[in-house]
Amino acid sequence: MRSMTLRGLFRRWCSGSSLRGSGGNIPDWIWERSRFVDKLHVRHGHPLCTIRGMIEAEMLAGLTKKGGGVHVETKLDPVVTSRQCFDELLVGQDHPSRSESDTYFLDGTKERVLRTHMTAHDTELLRKGARRFIISGDVYRRDAVDRSHYPIFHQMDGVNVFERANRKHVEDDLKETLSSMARNIFGKDANIRWVPGSFPFTSPSFEMEIFWRGEWLEVLGCGELQEQVLIHGGLVPTETENRGWAFGLGLERLAMVLFDIPDIRLFWSEDERFSSQFQDGVVQPFRPYSKYPPCYKDIAFWVPTRYHENHFFELVRGIAGDLVESVEEIDKFARGDRLSLCYRVVYRSMDRSLTNEEIDSLQDQVRAKSAAELGVTLR
Ligand code: PHE
User: Fold this and answer.
1) What would the 3-class secondary structure string for 98-151 be?
2) Lowest-confidence region among 15-24, 84-93, 349-358
3) b/e per residue, 166-188, with b = 16+ CB within 10 A?
4) How much is the pLDDT for 213?
5) Which atom belonging to ligand 1 lies closest to the Cα atom of 119?
6) Which of 139, 186, 244, 328 supports an S-S bond with 190, CB 3.0-4.6 Å?
7) 241-250 and 152-164 beta bridge pairing
8) DSSP string, 72-94
9) Which SS3 state, helix, strand or coil, does residue 278 take?
10) Is any atom of ligand 1 closer than 6 Å to the C-beta of 86?
11) Is 247 in the pocket of ligand 1 (CB under 6 A)?
12) Which residues lie closer than 8 Å to 212 by C-beta, 6 or more apart?
């Protein structure tokens, strides 16, 4: 299981347990990390901190050139209201991100969540009078288990609201500011393209892609803030006044590309062989110290009518911690109205070899807990 180092213990000083009520769905280890003081994106020398600092500096320079008054935040609390995270951003009532299978709720009332994106802070900061801001932090989503998905990751969001500007101007400024940031990070000859995006809080919406090592890589989402979102932010938008843009990007994805980091779990490694490779502010390729062998275990079961794969993924992660590399559905069939699923769980440590006994014990726990908690029937 997760062993706590001394450094780990220090990070947990503010437990904030009183915030959490009953009926929520946040595993303890996720909650504890949400309370850490020195999070990865502000931990000097950590690749996520370096990439955050670089993009922040670029955006700050870009925004300052056109007026200044830029507000930077890196320590906003990840606990926000569903109103901030969804309602004020026009996320529809039936949007999947509102469901318990996708989002961590603090209690049964679903009033408070661990933010699923940094955009959750936009309306509040606008109401407080901020017109240009860059915010970064940890965000939380229940999701797949593989090399690029982890229930905690980090994002940077930015907003720029103009007192006077028509929509064309807002769109031009958005694309110009973000392309120039991307060119400064990926190189001035970087091949950039804009593709249509779709977010409830912006319209039009775009995604920026960069051609990187032979493929188009999605870098960020952005768009013009919807009038209704600006109104929730306390502004009075007209055709030519109080219009603005917003963007959001995932730091892990960019850091994995720029630092050649092959597995998202490495960002959480406390192994010296990982941390000693990086210096604050320097982008350099990661040198894998060793690749330990993977071990595959399959599990098959009949699922009950109310079943969501994210519950199973989280159960495995809760038992195996960072020793699970991926969980993949490998077989599925129906008999009558019953559905059977088979998953392959890949165990592999980033830091050491695992023993057979250790893996068998993890897999036994996965089987027992699945039967007890998910209502599945093991086959
Ligand atoms: N919040 C969006 C996401 O998590 C990104 C985004 C931010 C898109 C702001 C548009 C504007 O994917």
Assistant:
1) HCCCCCCECCCCCCEEECCCHHHHHHHHHHCCCCEEEEEEEEECCCCEECCECC
2) 15-24
3) eeeebbebbbebbbbbbebbbee
4) 87
5) 1
6) 186
7) antiparallel
8) EES---SEEEHHHHTGGGT--TT
9) coil
10) no
11) yes
12) 186, 190, 257
Q: How far is the CA of 221 from the centre of ligand 1 (A)?
A: 5
- Whether 140 is in the pocket of ligand 1, judged by its Cβ within 6 Å, is no
For the record, the structure tokens of 154 come out as 């980090």
Helix (H, G, I), strand (E, B) or coil at 375: coil
Q: Assign residue 367 a region (left: φ > 0; alpha: ψ between -120 and 50; beta: otherwise).
A: alpha
pLDDT digits (tens, 9 = 90+) for 37-52: 999 999 999 999 999 9
Tens digits of residue pLDDT in 51-107: 999 999 999 999 988 877 999 999 999 999 999 999 999 999 999 999 999 999 999
pLDDT band at residue 13 under the 50/70/90 scheme: very low
Token pair belonging to 237: 């938008």
For atom 9 of ligand 1, the residue with the nearest CA is 247
Go through 256-286 and write b for each residue having 16 or more CB atoms within 10 A of its CB, e for each that does not.
bbbbebebbbbbeeeeeebeeebeeeeeeeb
Residue with tokens 């103009």: 162
Q: pLDDT for 121-165, tens place per residue?
A: 999 999 999 999 999 999 999 999 999 999 999 999 999 999 999
Q: Are strands 215-225 and 241-250 parallel, antiparallel or unpaired?
A: antiparallel
Map tokens 């990439």 to a residue.
51
Q: Please tell me the predicted confidence (pLDDT) of residue 7.
A: 52
Nearest alpha-carbon partner for 85 in 111, 107, 61, 109: 111
- Sequence length of the chain is 379
Query: Against a cut of 0.90, is the pTM above it?
Result: yes
Residue 48 CB neighbours (<10 A): 23
Tell me the pLDDT band of 2, cut-offs 50, 70 and 90.
Answer: very low
Alpha carbon of 43 to ligand 1 centroid (Å): 24
